[in-house]
Amino acid sequence: MATYRDDFYRLPALYDLEYAKHTEDLAFYGELAKKAERVLELGAGTGRVTQAMVDAGATVEAVDLSQHMLDRLTQRFASQGLSHRVNTRMASFLELPDGPQVPLVVLPFNTIHHVYTGKDVLRVFERVKARLLPGGTFAMDMLVPDPAFFDRDPDGVHELRHFPDPVSYTHLTLPTKRIV
Ligand SMILES: C[S@@+](CC[C@H](N)C(=O)[O-])C[C@H]1O[C@@H](n2cnc3c(N)ncnc32)[C@H](O)[C@@H]1O
Asked: Domains in the chain, please, with CATH?
């Protein structure tokens, strides 16, 4: 199984802050969800895309490996009185459990980059196929990586941008690795 480092995903409020302005994909997934009505979302995170699909009228099974991210997703929909529109499931999409077949499965926002071998990519796609109704749609998006990005020191902490911390994460021991 591919390794999974969830350092980034244990700070879900920071995740939301970092991607608050990333909205260009929402109309795409919202449109698909409007037609499908029932959606299985893999790597749902804090519900950024889930929200667009729920707003479009769909009910969503939201799968993620990070309980931190799913907790924030749960809070998001509870605070809107929309908990009945979203079922969360903590699981890896590499070992996606059986469940009801749906007309639409989505794997948004570069999440496939968390799958590190061709064999595992096929494994994910096989699990997607098992959960899709015949003739259903599978939609995903991914960036075309810049080779320089992958050439960086994998053990370093790479500074991308600054922003104020919106919450206090003092209860967590954050990585103290050097910035390269
Ligand atoms: C780039 S974020 C995308 C989150 C959300 N879909 C969005 O668009 O903001 C990737 C998400 O995939 C989850 N993830 C990574 N590997 C996973 C796996 N093997 N199975 C399920 N979720 C995984 C992470 O925990 C994270 O929430």
From this structure: 8-146 (3.40.50.150)
